[in-house]
Write a structure and sequence with these properties.
The protein is mainly α. The protein has one domain (about 1-55). The chain contains two helices and no strands.
């Protein structure tokens, strides 16, 4: 349950970053470097393993086209 809540929080942070900047963050470090999203770092760790969640951009945002 905690893992799902953290992933939901992290997804919200990524979506807000993309909405504000027009593109997905290239990395979680870039996300956390944003003053508005700095508080999202706490959501980036798996509570069971204490390791950082993986993140990578697979393609353009949906509204940018293919």
């Amino acid at each position: 349950m905690v893992r799902a809540l953290r992933l939901t929080r992290l997804a919200s942070c990524i979506e807000r970053y993309a909405r504000d900047g027009g593109e997905l963050p290239p990395s979680l470090d870039a996300l956390f470097g944003s003053a508005r999203e700095a508080d999202c770092a706490a959501a980036a760790r798996d509570p069971a393993t204490r390791r950082a969640f993986g993140y990578r951009v697979l393609g353009p945002m949906r509204d940018q086209g293919a």
